[in-house]
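Posting this for the archive.
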Amino acid sequence: MGRMIRKAFSFGTILWTLAFAGASIGRGQTPQPAAPSTQLVLLDTDIGDDIDDAFALALVLRSPELRLLGITTEFGDTGLRARLVDRYLAAVGRADIPVAAGVETEATNHFTQVAYARGGPDRRHADAVAFLLTQIRAHPGAITLIAIGPLFNVQAAIQRDPATFRKLKRVVIMGGSVYRGYDGGGSALQPPGPEWNVKCDPAGLQALLGAGVPVFMMPLDSTQVHLGRPQLLSIVKHGSPLTDQLTLLYHQWAEGREWPSPTLYDPVAVTYAIHPDLCPATPLRIEVDSAGDTKPVPGAPNAQVCLKLDEKGFLGLLLGRILQ
């Protein structure tokens, strides 16, 4: 996935401005240069399996606080994931954003949105690790990397050029499980356990925490936010180019299930990048073991960890921007 604008006039003015800007881009006009206060960001994503990556990308595209320098794909068939992103961006009038394919890995999980991805252009993509490092060199100390998948690209970038990687402003990740595990559909909180992104590449998070870059972690403790059916239907019925892509990807993810509720893990990481007050972070020292467990231990903090999210504020921001 701070966001609460206290003055009604300011809120209305911002929404009008964003709507006008979105309409201009949709008509093919050239986006205006970013304002000086705009954050430069890179998005590293394993889009195509779960549906939350698609919502995270939607929030990035609709957040004027962010200037998206490029998207790198992560985990499994990264070339096919890049095709998915190409199609998504073209459909919303943002084909100007570079897309690079990351480190390919084995993946036994189900690529649910493969049919949508195969509808994207079949072209050669740049190497994601080289792209990341090139962007960091071009904007030293200025880029926020938002990583919402396993950290294979991050790990490779650190190994290839640790000095350049340290020139990132910060890294915001969705990953980890500190005091809360996967809810599993029940109401009771579950004990912590390996979270998917970290479980797939524990060495990636170990490398990141030792890389000398500020790390902000959004673990299961704060990211298990469910999108209710009324909210979901409001997106499906909205009928904009952006919500149409979310609808197509949602139905492929759902695979015949009757309106399952998405869990919005990844948009929380984007939300933190633009409104950290919705998820205040606690400095912790996180130890990562080979199984992917992320345990708080005594010692100097190596991450800022969001343990509790303002879910109402988060959902208000996400839906407000997607439906603007």
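The first strand starts at residue 39 and ends at 45. The domain at 36-322 is CATH 3.90.245.10 (Inosine-uridine Nucleoside N-ribohydrolase; Chain A).
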